[in-house]
Amino acid sequence: MDFNDSKEEATFRNEAREWLVANAPTAADLNGLDDMGQAKLWQKRKADAGWACIRWPKEYGGRGANAMEQVILSQEEAKVKAPNTGFFSIGQGMAAPTMMTWATEDQKKQYLPKLASGENVWCQLFSEPAGGSDLAALRTRGVRDGDEWVVNGQKIWTSGAQYSDFGILVLRTDPNVAKHQGLSYFFLDMKSPGVEIKPIKQISGASGFNEVYFTDVRIPDAQRLGEVGQGWQVALTTLMNERASIGGGGGGAGFEQIMKLAQQLNIDDKPAIEDKQVRANLANWYVRQAGLKYTGYRSMTALSRGEIPGPENSIGKLVGAPLTQDLASFAIDLMDQAGILWSPESAELENIFQSAYMSIPGLRIAGGTDEIMANIIAERVLGLPQDVRVDKGIPFSEVPTGN
Amino acid sequence: MNFEFSEEQNLLREQTRGFLKDFCSPKVVRASLEANGPFNQELWRKVAEMGWTSTVIPEEYDGLGLSYLELSVIADELGRAMAPLPFSSSVYLATEAILAQGSKAQKEAWLPRLASGELIATFAMAENHGQVSPKNLTTTVTNDKIHGTKTPVPDGDYADLAIVVTQSSKGDGASWYLVDLTQSEIQRAQVRTLDPSRSHAQIDFNGASAELIGTDGGGWAATQNLLNRAAVLFAWEQVGGSDAALEMAKEYALGRYAFGRPIASYQAIKHKLADMYVRNTLARSNCYYGAWALNTNASELPIAAATARVSAIQAYYFASKENIQTHGGMGFTWEFDCQFHYRRSKILAVNVGSERQWQDKLITAIEQTSAA
Ligand SMILES: Cc1cc2nc3c(=O)[nH]c(=O)nc-3n(C[C@H](O)[C@H](O)[C@H](O)COP(=O)(O)OP(=O)(O)OC[C@H]3O[C@@H](n4cnc5c(N)ncnc54)[C@H](O)[C@@H]3O)c2cc1C
Ligand SMILES: Cc1cc2nc3c(=O)[nH]c(=O)nc-3n(C[C@H](O)[C@H](O)[C@H](O)COP(=O)(O)OP(=O)(O)OC[C@H]3O[C@@H](n4cnc5c(N)ncnc54)[C@H](O)[C@@H]3O)c2cc1C
Question: Which of A127, A171, A360, A376 to mutate to test ligand 1, by most ligand atoms within 8 A of the CB atom?
Fold first, then answer.
């Protein structure tokens, strides 16, 4: 047991580090650019040199690298001060693997390199008012008209729709068969006539996600992925990649930060860190955070050996998000009466916990709620039976609905 | 990155599990529990023959000279089987104590016999309720004669030898003494505990001969280091037990029907078991880190040990209590084996110091690391 790179890994790490250090944008490079502009500049630079989406085949803008090399690159990139490229994660992490599996060769050549280089930003148009956890209950209709599909309905919670060029989309193309059977999967140009995007204000005050309305929007049939009625199967490709790409992060509010806070603040005229209850709570968070980290190391070992990581990988978000929520809540309490003060833009230690407190509730819901994640572990990891379902085998149009 | 056991170590796991399946079934655990008597001597002999007691003892003292990764694998499996053996006392504590602090002569005198399993040794620390500290220790040694009372001492009713934590001669700290427990100036009696499948004793020392091991006054630092090492191995036993409890709950839930369907199909049970799985996974991964630190004598050992210990205590407590819950009324019966885990989890949780203490040690170790 050791934490050392293999010879090939060490060589790769050196090469990656050298390139990153030499090429990470300087303050002058980034001067005058907004967050998206900075992200695009950095992504393009990486893509031009073959350091973007490195696991993808070369002909689609990647490098043909293995999973372990991807891990190493991420580790090294985290060490240089580079712009946040999170804008591209839905497109690169979810849309691209779906295209890779289901699109035609021409489509892959046309769309994937621009996804890799950050030239195109993609969003995920899955959730609807009536279809969240139960995604297959979605109702936005697609009706065939010659070589096109005419789309009417509403998506909701679409992160990044406001700045996206393309979207992946699941539609109900047949309401008269059982709900999973009546779906089809498409991608579309977000500038298509009839697409209307309305920002939704979150409890944190930010507007990261949107409502997206479709009024007689026309999508070419050539932009269908999979067969008509096969949409659920295609969507599963996306969802499997979604779970792999969402972590439990809390915007920098973790154990190290609360430890620092507890060293700075006083309780009963002594540093808060000397308080036994504080120590016990911090220890509990530390061991959970450490457990996630070392679980990650176990998965990496599997990758490094060319194996598929075991199911232990699936616990990240389910552990990380509630942990950060509790930790942030306790940090605010430590600041006592002034814990309510919050400047959302500030990255100061006295502000990050409030920011985490207000953003984590979303993370416990996005990409599969805590309850759905627990079900997934129970069913797929432990092999327990699926929930009893009352909508099985009946046409979608006859399934009971509520609010 | 190589954060996994090797193929040979996985093979050892298979062998160990197979052996314990044959010779340490729940029936064997039950026999020890119900006999309320000493440990299973036949099983001990077999375990010693397999070489488990000699795993990390160097070859010059007749050991196998293997690593702590092999010992971790064995601990994991012993925990899973809830083996009614003095393994933790003799191997994780006494053998480690002698390896760490013994003189050459002491090592030569004791290690070969500990390796062969012919000798059973223990570590005597607790002096009744409450946490031991160098300030409240009452056991003393004058002119190599030991006086005082230790209770509960794991396996103290039949161990041949003990390393006893005493007051130092100047009364300013602690010292360790090797004491032959078969001397007539020693009275010992089994005490009743939460888990009779692992026996414990009260030992009264009335002027028996004792031999200093390590330095006079150096016993407290030695104890901390010893407990850090043992904590990793205890944690492995705990995660082994946690996984076994989860499997037991799962099997029962799949077979038990209520309201026309398996209770394993109700989310209250599904999510309970998913929660066990999550806690077990975190604790197990922390044990990997603990094993690495123990095996390489890393400066991170205090943090790694406390991390493994805290999460393993929590995981086993949770798995053992929710396993009973999943079994409904049956889980509460003497006849069912759920009680074994519930009892064992508590014994393991306090044996080398309780959760509260280790949470505190963890933060202290983190403070010291960041100050350094
Ligand atoms: C910050 C954020 C970003 C998002 N970004 C996107 C995006 O980019 N694209 C996109 O398509 N979607 C996005 N979503 C939507 C997200 O996928 C859904 O919110 C999520 O799947 C839950 O669906 P819902 O909101 O309809 O809640 P519901 O499904 O109505 O759930 C409500 C409650 O019921 C529980 N529940 C539901 N079903 C079950 C069950 N079977 N068993 C037990 N409990 C159950 C849930 O756990 C939850 O607690 C985003 C959401 C958030 C919060
Ligand atoms: C100390 C004690 C004294 C008792 N005294 C009496 C007495 O005097 N008279 C008498 O008649 N009975 C008595 N009982 C029996 C008691 O009422 C039952 O044990 C209890 O109702 C649970 O039933 P069960 O043991 O069959 O467990 P099960 O019903 O098999 O339950 C097993 C597990 O499945 C869970 N479960 C079951 N159904 C569901 C569901 N629909 N949703 C979610 N989870 C579910 C349970 O919560 C439990 O965790 C006693 C039990 C005990 C422990």
Answer: A127
Please state, in angstroms and rounded to a whole number, the distance separating the CA atoms of residues B235 and B219: 23
| Contact call for residues A53 and A61 (beta carbons, < 8 A) | yes
Q: Chain B contact for A273, CB < 8 A?
A: yes
Q: What is the pLDDT of residues A246-290, one digit of tens each?
A: 444 456 899 999 999 999 999 999 999 999 999 999 999 999 999
Q: Shortest Cα distance from B275 to chain A (angstroms)?
A: 8
Under an 8 A CB cutoff, do A288 and B274 touch? Answer: no
Tokens, residue A400: 């009971």
**CA nearest to A280 within chain B:** B359
Which residues of chain B neighbour A381 with C-beta distances below 8 Å?
274, 277
Token representation of residue A245: 């790409």
Say how many domains are in chain A: 3
| Residue A36 lies in domain | 7-84
Interface check A301 vs B, CB under 8 A: yes
Is residue B329 lining ligand 2, measured as CB closer than 6 Å?
yes
Give the domain CATH number at A193: 2.40.110.10
pLDDT at position A215 over 80 = yes
Same domain, B59 and B170: no
The CA B56 to ligand 1 mean position distance, Å, reads 52
Residue A21's domain is classified under what CATH number? 1.10.540.10
To the query of whether residue A242 is one of the catalytic residues in this protein, the response is yes
The whole-angstrom separation of Cα A38 and Cα A16 is 20
Residues present in chain B in total: 372
pLDDT digits (tens, 9 = 90+) for A320-354: 999 999 999 999 999 999 999 999 888 899 999 99
Domain termination site, one of B83, B116, B149: B116
> What CATH number does residue A298 fall under?
1.20.140.10
Is residue B41 domain-shared with residue B76, that is, in the same domain? yes
Pocket mutation for ligand 2, best pick of B250, B252, B263, B321 (most atoms within 8 Å of C-beta): B263
Q: Is the dihedral of CA B334, B336, B338, B344 positive or negative?
A: positive
User: Hey, CA dihedral for A354, A355, A356, A358, is it positive or negative?
Assistant: positive
User: What atom of ligand 1 comes closest to residue A155's alpha carbon?
Assistant: 11
